[in-house]
Amino acid sequence: MNELINSYQDGVERCLRCGICLSVCPIYSEERHEGTVARGKVHLIRKLLEGKLQLTPRLRQYMDLCLGCQACVENCPSQVPTDKIVCAARAQFVKEKGLPLVYYLALRWGLKNPALMSALFTSLGLARNMALTKLLPQTLKDKEEILPPLPAQTFWQQYKKTKPSRRKVAYFVGCLTNLVYPQVGLATLHVLEAAGYEVIAPQAFCCGLPHYSSGDLETARELAGKNVALFDALDVDAILTDCGSCGSALQEYVRWLDNDPRARKFSEKIRDVSEFIVNTAGLKPGMRSLGRTVTYHDSCHLNRSMGVVKEPRAILRALPGVQYEEAIEANRCCGGAGTFNLRHGDLSMKILGRKMENIKATGADTIAVGCPSCRMQLSYGAKKNNVPVDVLHPVELLAMTFSGSDHE
Amino acid sequence: MDTAKPLQELKNLLGEDRVLTKIEDRACYSYDASPYISEPQAVLIPRDTRDISGILKIASKYKMPVIPRGAGTGLSGGCVPVDGVFVLDMSKLNKIIEIDTKNLVAVVQAGVVLADLHRAVESLGLFYPPDPQSMNICTIGGNIATNAGGPRCFKYGVTKDYVLGLEVVLADGRIIRTGGKTIKNVSGYDLTRLFTGSEGTLGVITEVILRLIPLPRAKRTALALFNTLEDGAAAVSGIIERRIVPTTLELMDQDNMILIEKAKGVGFPMDAEAGILIEVDGKPREVAEDINLIAEICKEFGAREVRIAQTPEEAAALWAGRKASFGCLAQSTPSVFIEDATVPRSQLVTAIREFKALAKKYNLRIPILGHAGDGNLHPDICFDEKKPDEVARVEQCIDEMFSIALKLGGTLSGEHGIGIAKRKYVPWEFGEAGADVLRSIKNALDPLHILNPGKVLL
Fold first, then answer.
1. CA distances (Å), A381 to each of A145, A148, A263, A331, A338, in order?
2. Domain ranges of chain B
3. Which residues in chain B are contacts of A16 at CB distance < 8 A?
4. CB A23 within 8 A of CB A74
5. A376 vs B17: CA distance, rounded Å
6. B137 vs A59: CB contact, 8 Å cut-off?
7. What is the mean pLDDT of residues A213-242?
8. Which of B24, B89, B338, B380 is the best mutation test for A, with the most CBs of A within 10 A?
9. In Å, how far from its chain's centre is CA A263?
10. In CATH terms, is domain A6-97 a member of 3.40.50.720?
């Protein structure tokens, strides 16, 4: 019983219930219910492991109410790994009670199958062009609106190999970069090529994070295994991502795949593209002045999982014609959290509202962010809250400084 | 007892979704930050004072006990729901109603988070000094119910010194207002003070009028390290005798400094018995003079080293060790009682020496932090709640600790309150007659004993 959670017994018992997590949890600050914050969740899991609670729908509801932002973990005096405990509990629910149908379709059918995903997104693009989305019921319309305008062509449809070079680096292109923000992928290729790198980009599978965080460990592991195999033969020291969420998952493969040596090698090579540019390739912005006031939003996965904080800011501060303004609570979750915004619309919008207020206060006309999932949420927030800003990846801004750049 | 009827009436009053009875919800409100855990019958989520009045009328009718709960950060079990009580979750009453800059008062609801109040008044150049360590989480209502303190209270006084008036729902559901916006008010008995520190046993505090003062414009920080506790304590007395009143005088003992240094490497010496963080606030020129004078005094009294921060960053670095102390403590022990026995300042060293002797006698680890200016000590008694023999030793140790504090002319609790943890010692401090007075007050205001039963008084 509870075999997927048992290993966290020591972790849940470490909680002294001091309540420091209450001060940093974005969900608690809106809901103010103990079940929504680490202290309550950890206590519930403790009771579950003691056999005093069962896997009930109510318990599942509370386990579901977590952004995975890890602000509680970062601030916990006793270092309780609440994010991992919550994911283990979700996995236990999936094992005992199964996946809800919508999840089943999305995770095991859609996200697992790149061609199908591409087809679905194309259909959505068509439906939008024909204004068919207007016919959706209001609740679905709100959700559909979170997805930004789709590009005419995916990343892979526009992909051109970079020039051969002795210096090689691999690039993991995530689902959202391919389908929604191909320009980030193109900018990444451009910047790395300019720095003298040959970029090897195999057509990867979904990183598996949506599956892992929904408790579908089985599919997460399957995808991880496929991706490890895909990159295993490449003679590179680093595998780059432009997405903090993908990156954090790829770094976790070694744990998902039970310390498999090939997975370890893979996970150890994973690096964020901004971090790689600053610390390895060398940051050499072009001459073109951007004339922008830029602020930065920390993706929780990029910040707290991958530990990338300084480098994207270093890029932004180095760009010609960029005035950098740090926002207050820059590292507070935007409320997007993968599919959290789709599942908990109102709550997500409240969390986003606070984020947009903080961004507005900087006077910035541009938000830089290193994660496409945050980017969708922030773009939606800008639209909903009438904050006139562009939301861009730091690497896109970097690419814009090159003369003759077409990354505008 | 049959709870179906009162529950139905409560649901009629509040709505179904504001009466939580599922085991998962009750479990989430079964604790505070102390080691005590016990589940309530139900969690009630009132929206306003009228809801609370209605709840207490129903509670009186059925003799159902209720207990107000802010954010559950108490350290003595004050809001842990013993005996299947109903928890009143006060967190939705979280409006700052008014910041009156003409009269220098704030009017706030009980569920307002202290740090939110701090931010709101400080943005207007005003100051509400009490600063319990949980200030980013705890609520004003809880602060008043426990008469909370904090490091700054040596200079500025504690919560009760800032409460000018209250709105309170009585046990029978009637609503009263005490005090008002005036500093001076001597009409009748001082009911404001009576409810302040009453730990939810006399009434439910719903709204508060707080006194504000101008925000000091500057502060300076220094860290003084002493070879012996005696030197450190003498320096503290020396500073005060020279008529300097620092905002904070935070004492760390050797056990704490070793714990922090091993975990964080902040540059504490392992062989010093006392480290004292000193902060002064006021006008810029004044604080610069004061901090240098303090450094001289500390050296005069044998400080081995005094570090004065020249920039806010350096001040933050000096604070880093002290701020890390709870984390370091938490990682070093499965459970902890954070006590707050308080003695007159002149007895500080004696108390620390005697508490250390207790640690040895009962084979327990007890690092001590303290607010050296006001004699408020925090002996942190580390133990493992899974080891019954250790729990028994902890109990004996705490018994002796409180008898020492009282013998030295001190008190059971400087700032955490009695709650569950210290109720058996109340007659020690008050005497039988004194405890009788407490009981009479309780009986007068809560004849049915439905307000936070089993707390403060046994």
1. 11, 11, 37, 16, 15
2. 4-91, 94-214, 217-326, 333-417
3. 33, 330, 335-336
4. no
5. 33
6. no
7. 94
8. B24
9. 20
10. no
**pTM confidence score:** 0.92
A59·B24 Cβ contact <8 A = yes
A128: Cβ–Cβ under 8 A, 6 or more apart, which residues? Answer: A149, A150
From A14, which residue of chain B is nearest by alpha-carbon distance?
Answer: B334
Option in A23, A43, A56 nearest B137 (CB): A23
Of A13, A17, A79, the CB nearest to B33: A17
**For domain B217-326, which CATH number applies: 3.40.50.800, 3.30.70.3450, 3.20.20.80, 3.40.50.300?**
3.30.70.3450
When the candidates are 3.30.300.20, 2.40.110.10, 3.30.43.10, 3.40.50.300, the CATH number that belongs to B4-91 is: 3.30.43.10
For the segment B190-216, the average pLDDT, to the nearest whole number, is: 97
Q: If you count them, how many residues does chain A have? A: 408
A33/B136 CB distance under 8 A: no
pLDDT digit string, tens, across residues A140-194: 666 677 778 888 899 999 999 999 999 999 999 999 999 999 999 999 999 999 9
Domains B4-91 and B333-417 share a fold: no
Q: Cβ of A62 under 8 Å from any chain B Cβ? A: yes
Q: What is the ipTM of this complex?
A: 0.93
Return the number of other C-beta atoms located less than 10 Å from residue A137's C-beta: 7
Chain A, chain B: beta-carbon pairs less than 8 Å apart? 72
User: Is A44 close to B330, i.e. CB distance below 8 A?
Assistant: no
Rounded to 10°, the helix B348-361/B388-407 angle is 160
CATH for the stretch B94-214: 3.30.465.10
Neighbours of A50 (CB within 10 A): 10
Q: How far is CA A170 from the centre of its chain?
A: 19
On whether the CB atoms of residues B366 and B356 are closer than 8 A, the answer is: yes
Distance in Å, alpha carbon of B78 to nearest chain A alpha carbon: 14
Interchain pair A58, B91: CB under 8 A = no
CA distance A242 to B429: 64
Question: Are A370 and A243 contacting, i.e. CB atoms less than 8 angstroms apart?
Answer: yes
From the number of C-beta atoms within 10 Å of its C-beta (0-12, 13-18, 19+), residue B125 rates as exposed
Domain assignments of chain A as residue spans, ordered by start: 6-97, 155-207+221-280, 284-400
Q: How far is CA B58 from CA A250, B53, B65, in A?
A: 56, 9, 10
What is the per-residue pLDDT across B366-425, written as a single tens digit (0 to 9) for each?
999 999 888 999 999 999 988 999 999 999 999 999 999 999 999 999 999 999 999 999
Confidence category of residue A99, pLDDT binned at 50, 70, 90: confident
Shortest CA distance from A41: residue in chain B: B28
What is the CATH code for B333-417? 3.30.70.2740
Task: Using CA coordinates, name the residue in chain A closest to B18.
Answer: A33
Judged against a pLDDT cut of 70, whether residue B167 lies above it is answered with yes
What's the CA gap between A231 and A249, in Å, rounded? 15
Cβ distance B73 to A18 less than 8 Å, yes or no, reads yes
CA nearest A8: which of A85, A75, A64?
Answer: A85
Instruction: Please name the CATH architecture into which domain A284-400 falls.
Output: 3-Layer(aba) Sandwich (3.40)
**Could A53 and B33 be called an inter-chain contact, meaning their C-beta atoms sit closer than 8 Å?**
no
Domain with residues A155-207+221-280, CATH architecture = Up-down Bundle (1.20)
**Chain B contact for A78 (CB, 8 A cutoff):** yes
